[in-house]
UniProtKB/TrEMBL annotation:
Stored Gene3D superfamilies: RnfH-like
Organism: Duganella margarita
A Pfam family reported for this protein in Swiss-Prot or TrEMBL: Ub-RnfH
Protein family according to the UniProt entry: Belongs to the UPF0125 (RnfH) family.
Name the record gives this protein: UPF0125 protein GTP55_17390
Length: 98
């Protein structure tokens, strides 16, 4: 009897790289195993899974999460600016020169 497999996607995007890979994985595969199987850590230089947030469909999930059919595994880059602070900066008008 063949082991059940299902389709998932692994994706990562940055200014310099885009990665999207469809995979067939066996039932019981974890998020961490899917990232390893995808090859993203080898194809995108400088990625460190220990430093990245991970999730499924924009919801943060730990690496030991068991995947389900059609999950999209996402690797999130660290923020370079606090979103609240950036919104405040945009909302505050610039001083007018006289």
């Amino acid at each position: 009897m063949a082991a059940e497999t299902f389709a998932i996607q692994v994706c990562y995007a940055s200014d310099g790289a885009q990665f999207l890979r469809d995979l067939q994985v066996p039932a019981g595969t974890t998020l961490e195993q899917a990232v390893a199987l995808s090859g993203v850590l080898q194809e995108v230089p400088g990625l460190d899974l220990g430093q990245l947030q991970t999730g499924i469909y924009a919801k943060k999930k730990p690496l030991d999460t068991i995947l389900r059919a059609h999950d999209r595994v996402e690797l999130y880059r660290p923020l370079i600016a606090d979103p609240k602070h950036a919104r405040r900066r945009r909302k505050t008008p610039a001083p007018v020169a006289e």
